[in-house]
């Protein structure tokens, strides 16, 4: 039990997350006799660079490689003494073709969103396990998006290689807590859920600046002309073209799928040039889920009143026995009518209390990175950082899944469904809320 009385033991370890923690911990103890894995980082812009130190530091990684079409980006890491023990100058690559021809075990693709799907397919076909930043792809054409999702799944099946989506929401502390509770059956029957991603264009993390950085480099500069071609053919974007931060949390934690959706869109009314290729700046959707619950999702890029991180990027799950919202767990323990008078318990948690534990060796390795970044070499308190603390857990999940040759938690089937939910919401919103089915490829097989 933890300090709040929550059982954080492993029980019979029937869920894959628990098995992963156990097997990875065992392998880490045997590192003196077992070789680690080799990973290549593809795309070393500002976001890709944020993950380089974590991947290098992980105890199960023996070798790192770098790939970018702009040599100065590689040079920054190649000349950093921190990487010297795991980086050989021969492992510097100027193109995806070159690094795919290498003998590396896995590639981490953190390039422009519209490139993720084709690049990951090429990597899997070259024999690599693959991780990509979110989303699986991001294009104005919903049919094209669904086609890429299907191709990612088909390629994974055909090649036997695994794909992981780096969806931060699934590795935030709130998701870890809710997944534990769901696997333990403590929600009871699921009734309702909500997922929200409220990111105004001019928030502290300016979307104008994000787009400027994405289109600044040699490859990124090709996008504006492509976007203009989509617009001329009547293909306009919406926030649901990038739905993963809002839809993934509840669906991932409940282990379910969406069946159908009714959605409505809000169109920009100010003539803001940022939205000139967007059909909607805000979309709200109501999904029917396969577990019998309903789920409201909001993806918004034009709004005021972003008060706190918990309110900007959040989800809630409501069950008959337990519910979770804004770091508060509500529990009545009710199983039948005789429990009706049982008082409800309300427990507020800090983020630190919600996280899953990392193996000690991994925690120590990541603490070194954290101290190096902060300049505080005496700090012994590891605090997970990056998008709600998700970054270390994303790295650990991918590395261990490659090492153990298993499906990652957010695999091709999971990632494809998140995108399919957004594409169905787009179709419904364009048809004034018409009830629309969500394409479903099922759940990932083990191979």
Automatic annotation (TrEMBL):
Single GO MF descriptor: nucleotide binding
Lineage, highest ranks first: Bacteria, Pseudomonadati, Lentisphaerota, Lentisphaeria, Victivallales
Record carries keyword Oxidoreductase: yes
UniProt-recorded name of the protein: Gfo/Idh/MocA family oxidoreductase
Domain Gfo/Idh/MocA-like oxidoreductase N-terminal residues, every copy: 37-138
Oxidoreductase found in the keyword field: yes
Any Pfam family: GFO_IDH_MocA
Signal peptide bounds: none
Origin superkingdom: Bacteria
Keyword entries, A-Z: Oxidoreductase
């Amino acid at each position: 039990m933890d300090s709040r009385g929550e059982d954080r033991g492993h029980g019979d370890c029937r869920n894959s997350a628990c098995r992963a923690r156990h097997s990875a911990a065992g392998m880490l103890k045997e590192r003196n006799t077992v070789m680690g894995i080799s990973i290549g980082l593809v795309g070393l812009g500002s976001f890709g660079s944020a993950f380089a130190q974590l991947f290098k530091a992980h105890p199960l990684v023996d070798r790192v490689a770098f790939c970018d079409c702009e040599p100065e980006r590689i040079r920054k890491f190649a000349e950093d003494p921190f990487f010297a023990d795991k980086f050989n100058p021969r492992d510097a690559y100027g193109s995806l073709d070159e690094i795919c021809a290498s003998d590396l075990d896995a590639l981490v693709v953190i390039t422009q969103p519209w490139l993720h799907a084709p690049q990951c397919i090429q990597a899997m076909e070259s024999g690599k396990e693959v991780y990509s930043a979110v989303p699986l792809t991001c294009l104005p054409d919903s049919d094209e998006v669904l086609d890429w999702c299907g191709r990612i799944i088909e390629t994974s099946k055909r090649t036997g290689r695994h794909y992981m989506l780096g969806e931060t929401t699934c590795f935030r502390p709130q998701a870890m807590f809710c997944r534990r509770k769901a696997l333990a059956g403590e929600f009871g029957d699921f009734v309702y859920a909500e997922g929200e991603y409220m990111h105004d264009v001019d928030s502290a993390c300016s979307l104008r600046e994000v787009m400027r950085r994405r289109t600044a480099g040699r490859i990124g500069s090709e996008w504006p002309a492509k976007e203009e071609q989509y617009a001329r053919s009547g293909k306009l974007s919406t926030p649901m073209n990038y739905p993963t931060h809002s839809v993934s949390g509840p669906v991932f934690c409940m282990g379910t799928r969406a069946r159908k959706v009714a959605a409505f869109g809000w169109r920009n009314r100010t003539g803001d040039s940022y939205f000139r290729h967007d059909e909607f700046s805000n979309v709200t959707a109501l999904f029917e889920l396969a577990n019998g619950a309903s789920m409201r999702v909001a993806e918004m890029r034009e709004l005021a009143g972003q008060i706190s991180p918990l309110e900007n990027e959040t989800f809630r799950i409501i069950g008959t026995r337990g519910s979770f919202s804004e770091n508060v767990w509500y529990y009545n323990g009710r199983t039948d009518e005789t429990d009706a008078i049982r008082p409800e318990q309300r427990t507020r948690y800090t983020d630190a209390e919600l996280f899953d534990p990392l193996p000690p060796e991994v925690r120590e390795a990541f603490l070194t990175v954290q101290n190096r970044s902060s300049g505080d070499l005496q700090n012994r308190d590891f605090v997970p950082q990056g998008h709600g603390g998700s970054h270390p857990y994303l790295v650990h999940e991918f590395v261990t899944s490659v090492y153990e040759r298993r499906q990652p938690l957010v695999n091709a089937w999971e990632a494809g469904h998140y995108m399919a939910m957004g594409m169905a919401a787009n179709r419904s919103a364009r048809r004034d809320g018409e009830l629309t089915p969500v394409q479903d490829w099922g759940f990932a097989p083990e191979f």
